[in-house]
Amino acid sequence: MTLPRPFRALLPLLILAAGITGFLILRATAPESPPMEVAERVWRVDSEVVSPQTLSPALQLYGHVTTPRTANLRAAVEADVRDTPAEEGRMVAADDVLVRLDERETALQVMQREADLADIRAQITAERLRHVRDREALGHDEALLELTARNVDRARDLLARDAGSLSALDDARRAYEQQALAVNTRRLALEDFDARMAQLAAREQRAEAQLEDARLNLERTRVRAPFDGRIARLAVAPGDRVRVGDVLVTLFDARALEVRARIPALYLPMVRTALEAGETLTARGEIDRAEVRMELTRLAGEAPATGAGVEGLFRIVEGGEHAPLGRFLTVRLTLPEQADVIALPFEALYGTDRVYREEEGRMRALTVDRRGEWIDAEGRERVLVHSPGIRDGDRLVTTRLPNAVDGLRIETDVD
């Protein structure tokens, strides 16, 4: 059966209208589903009930062994190294010979200086004898001057009476002038005696100083320890030629060892106040499994260019006598007692100044002041914090959460 043409044109529209009507009927008669509820996530954490206490905090620092008494013993003369009794790392006593230099060149200088001094002293003796002879000869010269003066008078008288010649008078005058010159020369020698003796005395003093310097250089061919200490470095060997100023041995005083460790700027006011009040701040460390006891004596006068804080200088009291210079060690500095501080696991501290208190199942942030570290009776290391907002009996979160924010929902185990 063939459908009429108008009906065939409307058939697709009738099918589409029937489909839409059926969809609307099914949607209207479908059952309603309840809305989905998104539950807030609860984080399970550990917590501790805290109580403010009075405790002595400690700081863990990293330092190295040093000393303010390090001597670089240098060559005072140019010579060959003859022997080196010193050995690196050995303990030596004051005045021990560490290096022997060849003394032959210096011994020859001593002999030359001794000869120079003997020559000057001989000149002084000869000058004194000459002075005595000049003083005795002056009387004879003055007597001869009187005789020549008489000869001049006699020759003049004879010439006036035509009994003498003019040449005889000239000879008499010449003899008088020569003798007068000799008398003046002798008197000048006597008058200059003190000046010549002063010059010779100055030359004698200079020669004595040069001789003493040569003897000192001879003594310096034996390089000795200036104090009890330990050899840090031996820079020469037998046969080496050393010049003046070359370093031979480096020696440090083992009784004046110190440890330099940088104290963070956060704790400097506390440390400086304790030092100014005369308190003794003790510290402990370990070198080669041996305990080292120290005391903080002072703070460095110059801050390092890199990093915050200032170096503290710790005097080694016990246990570090044989520590090598430059040895690194961990220093645990005990600070003065702090009141109203809380000891917490390090996991409870977020950043440097934030902890969280549990309030009605949520985390509430508190700002704290870090006061150092502390080791409890069980040997656990804890951080000490202080905050006026923490009260006795508060429960603080001790679990480190990566997404910790104020108001986060948590669940804790109740002790």
Automatic annotation (TrEMBL):
> Per the record's keyword annotation, is Coiled coil included, yes or no?
yes
Q: Which GO terms describe its molecular function?
A: efflux transmembrane transporter activity
Q: Name one GO cellular component term.
A: efflux pump complex
Coiled-coil regions listed in the entry:
190-224
Q: Which domain of life is it from?
A: Bacteria
* UniProt entry keywords in alphabetical sequence: Coiled coil
Kindly indicate whether the keyword Coiled coil belongs to this entry.
Answer: yes
Kindly give the SUPFAM superfamilies that the UniProt entry links to this protein.
HlyD-like secretion proteins
The name under which this protein is listed is: RND transporter
What is the protein's species of origin? Thioalkalivibrio denitrificans
